[in-house]
Design brief:
The structure is a homodimer. With about 130 residues, chain A is of the alpha+beta class. Chain A has four helices and five strands; from the N terminus they run βααααββββ. The longest helix of chain A is centred in the middle third of the chain and has 13 residues. β2 of chain A pairs antiparallel with β2 of chain B.
Chain lengths: ~130, ~130
């Protein structure tokens, strides 16, 4: 087992133009909150806000590419969106192992994304399975 | 209010090459389970399997583009992955409103994605807020 309870991980993710535009090209979500600055300002935001599911794409990278083994598969995820993310925001990602379930080969993480102002923009849990 | 308890929604999503390759270009998750057929076969799958977070991108499109109003924002999501999704799978998406919370302007959905064999590949819940 490459994992221990309390193991911590961190990454930095940038919500670049490439990621933002790429997400729209792939998934076609052009809701005005994400594409129209004036619409978003009228709703009380500083500017158009980024799609929350871009953060779920970053979680895919974290699980698929940043762990000490590639033999993993996601079982379940949850995410709560707490504050808006804007274009070019740099997000600090932190995760910690809060459960190791040997009998079912599963590992549970909590995680959060924070912006430069140290505000949590999203947080949640992920459970993964270890593949044999 | 454009929504009522029990309202049902359905969409069809295709896990095309464009979506699969686009997701990898945007999020850089090249875990061998998603990119190497032989690796995935050795782990017991029919072929390389698609990233679960591609389905979360489809959820973004559903909430952002398929509801009777565009004045929405996602509060939270959860997803459980139940069966593998393969390249070119056509997924039937069904959602239903299971909660309307007027005092906080929030609506809760359950949803599932099924493949052509009628197997549920993923299911979960989404809560959205209605923007004023």
């Amino acid at each position: 087992m490459n994992f221990e309870l309390g193991n911590k991980f961190e990454e930095c993710f940038v919500l670049s133009n490439e990621v933002y535009n790429g997400f729209i090209v792939v998934f076609k979500d052009k809701n005005p909150l994400h594409t129209n600055n004036q619409f978003a300002v009228n709703k009380g935001f500083k500017n158009k806000i980024m799609h929350g599911n871009i953060l779920n794409g970053f979680l895919s990278y974290f699980i698929g590419e940043c762990l000490p083994t590639k033999d993993v598969i996601i079982h379940s995820q949850e995410i709560q969106f707490k504050n808006a993310v804007y274009l070019n925001d740099e997000l600090q990602f932190n995760a910690e192992i809060i459960g190791i379930y040997d009998s079912v080969n599963a590992i549970e993480f909590t995680y959060s994304f924070k912006n430069k102002e140290e505000l949590i923009v999203a947080k949640g849990k992920i459970q993964i399975g270890l593949l044999k």
